[in-house]
Amino acid sequence: MADVTPEPEGPEDDELKRKFREALERKKLAQTEANAGGRGKNSSKIHGAHGPVGGKRSFRRKSG
């Protein structure tokens, strides 16, 4: 396999990295804003996953 040596960074690479960082910051900001609305008692998207069961189950042995 051939060794790949990175080329020296130029102004284009810096500009590209800056654009990616800005896009990542916008994405993180959008995610935090979307999650911020759910603060409070019922902030989860899943409701009643571990709530009380409707009726208690009873197990009986089979006779005969």
TrEMBL record:
Residues 15-30 have a biased composition (Basic and acidic residues). The lineage of its organism: Bacteria, Bacillati, Actinomycetota, Actinomycetes, Streptosporangiales. This is DUF5302 domain-containing protein. Residues 1-64 are annotated as: Disordered. InterPro entries: DUF5302 (IPR035172). Pfam families: DUF5302.
